[in-house]
Amino acid sequence: MFRFTRPLLQASKLSTGIHGLSVHPNPLPELTKTYESTLAALSSIPKHAAYRQGAEALTSRKLKIVQDANGDVAQVEKQLDEGQIEQAIAIAKDELGLVGKMTEWKAWEPLEEKPEPGQWEYFGKTSTAS
Q1: C-alpha 123, offset from chain centre
Q2: Residue-level pLDDT, tens digit, the chain, 130 residues
Q3: What pLDDT score does 117 carry?
Q4: CA distance 28 to 32
Q5: What's the CA gap between 63 and 65, in Å, rounded?
Q6: Among 99, 61, 56, which Cα is nearest to 80's?
Q7: How far is residue 30 CA from its own chain's centroid?
Q8: What distances in angstroms separate CA 68 from CA 25, 28, 44, 73, 99, one per listed residue?
Q9: Can you tell me the distance from the alpha carbon of 89 to that of 35, in angstroms, rounded to the nearest whole number?
Q10: Nearest to residue 108, comparing CAs of 39, 55, 45?
Q11: What is d(CA 45, CA 53) in angstroms, rounded to the nearest whole number?
Q12: Beta-carbon neighbour count of residue 115 at 10 Å?
């Protein structure tokens, strides 16, 4: 019975209280679509790339949270822990944009130039550059 009133509760929200971030009329389908688009875009990055592995795992986890919530916006907000649902949508869209940039930059490829000796040494720790 209450399942049908959930969209009405979200629609009754007048403001996010954050300048420049308006209330989304139907946030969960938008969030699902954005996460699915991100996963599709990540498929263009090689599987061995650390960025793809991390972003894919995180996005899949977030998508599962949204799908398991059964339309409960408050539950999604609590489990995602990214603020209001509109903020989660903005974060998801930013990540989708970053996937495009990472694909353009080909960040998984080796460096064009060898790093200077000691360039990757911080706080007395040494690492080997390849």
Answers
A1: 31
A2: 455 555 555 557 788 788 888 888 899 999 999 999 999 999 999 999 999 999 999 999 999 999 999 999 999 999 999 999 999 999 999 999 999 999 999 999 998 888 888 888 887 766 655 5
A3: 86
A4: 6
A5: 5
A6: 61
A7: 13
A8: 20, 11, 27, 11, 25
A9: 9
A10: 45
A11: 10
A12: 10
Tokens representing residue 77 in the block: 């907000």
| Cβ-contact 34, 89 below 8 angstroms | yes
| Residue 122 phi, psi dihedral angles, 5° rounding | -130, 135
Give how far Cα 35 sits from Cα of 14, 107, 126, Å: 25, 21, 38
Amino acid at 80: L
Sign of CA dihedral 52, 58, 60, 62: negative
C-alpha distance from residue 14 to each of 9, 18, 104 (Å): 10, 12, 39
